[in-house]
């Protein structure tokens, strides 16, 4: 490949940084186009990049694809650029178990953590029973991961894959809830992820992007 | 293949029927194991089938895989049994656009429609602002699909794929909200999906399963 991928991103949301992290891990050249939230749900972004009006999205000039949904982007990146399968598997059942955990991140962790953040931080009124509902759902996600990680270092097989990496950008929020230490196998896994140089650098750049108002 | 796949399912939830529908479309032999909700979030189901304690899940004795998360199961089924790519694409960018819409169904439609159903039907108290929030999110999903379908018959390329089929089992709920006709391209697409013999048969069997108390 020769030309850098454009990553449409935003400083605060966890999802663009999930894709950012995989781009770093695979040493894929990319440049970030910072989007204002106000510009996402209108033209030209909706027609030219994402009808869903959300980030992340990418445009890859090498293959001429425009793609949104972080899980689909990550699948595209490993299929196209991870030729040695450093972050995934090519054999069954491992490759499908990677997909299973990626889908759990997309449909379980992301939406529930997102709703928890909404009712705890952004909703127009305090709704204790809604806050409680999503606090319980966040704990359930920890419980599922903790249970799956008993006696294991990574979610699938013996290496860190996109399945593991996809969870880490949402976990910062959950750590603020102070409950991660109740799930020791989850916690140790999260610490292994956070210790990776790519994650360290991503977290630092995320902080800088937010400080810069992106 | 020789032996039927076991589909762990339940009568009421939309997600198991998503997998059921793809098994039908691909003429894959399968047998349904009906699960009680009470048995999902405990042993042996959590350790033997799904640590997430939810359905759908499958066991395929032909490849000896056990898998959960409806999106991952569907990806497995087409990769393993849809050799003529009847319901998907093998070329780029179409195959990634199928993945993109499947992920939107998993992370957008499913969770938001599910939260709407929760606050409208099951939550322990009436919370008008929470109900309103998810009603707006359901409308947003219709808006995105309606916009993407302008001038098109199916979401990706010129044929019905797993991307289209994955949305149909949740749409029954949304139809009850009486808003689908406000999104004419979405509505026409949904009518095309519902007219398929496999969808007709699935909806009939879902009704029978619920009547039988599954």
Question: Helix and strand layout, with pairings?
Answer:
2 copies of one chain form a homodimer.
Chain A (H helix, E strand, L loop, with lengths): L4 E5 L4 H12 L4 E5 L2 H4 L4 H4 L8 E4 L4 E4 L1 H12 L12 H29 L5 H21 L13 H4 L2 H8 L8 H11 L2 H15 L3
Question: Care to describe what's here?
Answer:
2 copies of one chain form a homodimer. By secondary structure, chain A is of the alpha+beta class. Chain A folds into 2 domains: 5-86, Glutaredoxin; 94-198, Glutathione S-transferase Yfyf (Class Pi), Chain A, domain 2, CATH 1.20.1050. Helix content of chain A is 56%, strand content 8%. Chain A contains 10 helices and 4 strands; from the N terminus they run E-H-E-H-H-E-E-H-H-H-H-H-H-H. In chain A, strands 2-1-3-4 form a 4-stranded mixed beta sheet, with helices on one face. In chain A, strand 3 (57-60) and strand 4 form a beta hairpin. In chain A, helix 6 packs across helix 9 (184-194). The model of chain A has no long low-confidence stretch (mean pLDDT 95). Chains A and B meet through strand 4, helix 4, helix 5 and helix 6 of A and strand 4, helix 4, helix 5 and helix 6 of B. Chains A, B: This is glutathione transferase. Chains A, B: Residues 3-85 form the GST N-terminal domain.
List keywords for this structure.
four-stranded mixed beta sheet, 4 strands, GST_C (chains A, B), homodimer, Glutathione-S-Trfase_C_sf (chains A, B), 10 helices, Thioredoxin-like_sf (chains A, B), Glutathione S-transferase Yfyf (Class Pi), Chain A, domain 2, globular, alpha+beta, transferase (chains A, B), 214 residues, Glutaredoxin, 2 domains
